[in-house]
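Example 3.2
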Amino acid sequence: MLENNEKELQQPITEEIIAVKVETENAVNAVEIEVANEAEKVDEKHEIPMLDYATMELSTLVDELNKLLSSYQIQQLKSNIDALKNAFNTKFGDLVAEKKAAFLAEGGNSIDFQFSSPIKSEYNKLLGDYKTKRDAHYSKLENQLKENLEKRNGLIDELKTLIEKADAKTMYNDFQEIQKKWRTIGPVPKTKYNDTWKIYHHHVERFYDLLDLNKDFRELDFKHNLEEKLKIITRAKALNEVVDVNVAFKDLQDLHRIWKEEIGPVGKEHREDVWGKFSEATKKIHDKRHQYFRELKSKYQEMIDAKLQVVAEINAFDTSNNNSHNDWQKSIVELEKLRKKYFDIGKLPYNKSEAVWQEFKTATKKFNSSKNVFYKAEKSTQNDNLKSKIALIELAESIKDSDEWEDTTNTMKRIQSDWKKIGHVPRKFSDDIWKRFKDACNFYFDRLNAQKNEQNKEQLELVVAKKEFIEQLKASENLTLENIQDSITKWRALGFLPRNARHLDEKFNKAIDAHLGNLNMSKSDIELMKFKNSIDTYLLQKDFKKLDNEQYFIRKKIDESVKDMQQLENNLGFFSNAKDDNPLVLNVRKGIQEFKDQLDVWKSKLNYIKKLDY
């Protein structure tokens, strides 16, 4: 406010001067409005750290709300509570939307959807406590502000009465008492703050102007006030050099408050001058702050554009080719990078950020909806996989004690192969079912390995015994058919050779064949006996493939012998006029007989194999 000036203007008033004065007055008024606003909030000045609530989980937000309510005065919480509420409502809204989408995807009806959360209940209770305490505080504060206003108006009336009476003996002391009381009265409603002060200050100046009781004292007081106001002007000018305009503006408000509340008037000849200098310094800070917010507004637009660009990238994010859990995990990582990019751009004021935030939520919701559709189907598949794996576990557990080593081992290997082919199961069951499956398999294969170790020891002893038996057989002489058959019986009684030592059966058979060749037996009988020995060996080894191959080979030989014999018989027809003692006829008849004899051997071999039970 421009103070009264009774001096004559020494220069003409131009439109330019008027414009400057108007701008200055507007700047001062803007600052004083802020001073009035801040005066009402005198007990709200305590700074509370503003955390990044947007990145916190719901449970953490509830914990932080509880800490705020228990650690600070209720009137200091508004900024933090508003930011925390915004973060909680956004995250909880996303959670409800996700649950509802899952409910509808499972065939539920929208009207039947309900969702409750213990976290939300606790949050609502704490928020209700905050609102109750806040309302009680501001109701009490409103009454206190009105009461303070009445007290200040009362002091103004006392001051006016004091001036009207002008009792030289008591007026100065009474005035000092009024000033003392004025300074002790707390804040008044912001809408009344400036008007109340202007009225009070006007009457204070009237008092000093009329004070003749002690002119020297008045001049001393004026001098002191002038010195203090000049100091304030110096401080105000220095604020123009402060880099942080918000800090400078806050300090400027404190200077205005001190100017009004703590320092009295100066002499008439200085009033307009000091007020003009203070107003000019105020305007510079005000203009600088105004420019800062203009630039900040431009910067906000750049941030908004950058955030919208990220939103466009999220909207364009393609998940159509995601067919597996790994595909989605890669997409989730990429989306998190975009989310981080969005938040790293910086914070916007609430009134600037809400529209952009809604765009961001819509874009991420689109991604999350596609993800939820996949994992809903994945959940159904995983439940089917769980059933399949439990069936394999039950089968493995049912045979883990079996002594049917060959069959059980094959079954266990098949179970393990089938297990690998089955996909993921719900995570909460994964560790438990894997432990059951692993325990059943390990139990059986530990038993199998122990049995094999024992078997290997026995097989080694058997191999040594059979090698010695072969050497003894080779060294034997003049064995009879009975001796040979007895050797065969003893050989088989020793036991069944392991696969890696079956070449010893071949060596034994060769040794038997050598002894059979020394017997006075027909060639066909010897051949048949050798054959039976080999076939019996295959049967003991359960080498059914070799038995089948032998049978196929014999049938082939029978067919070939019959064809060759028929050919010779046909050839014999060409010699119908030849004598029986013709060498060529004799040679053909001999060949036919040899084929008949060999055919009998092949048929005997076939009959022997066909009688075997394998």
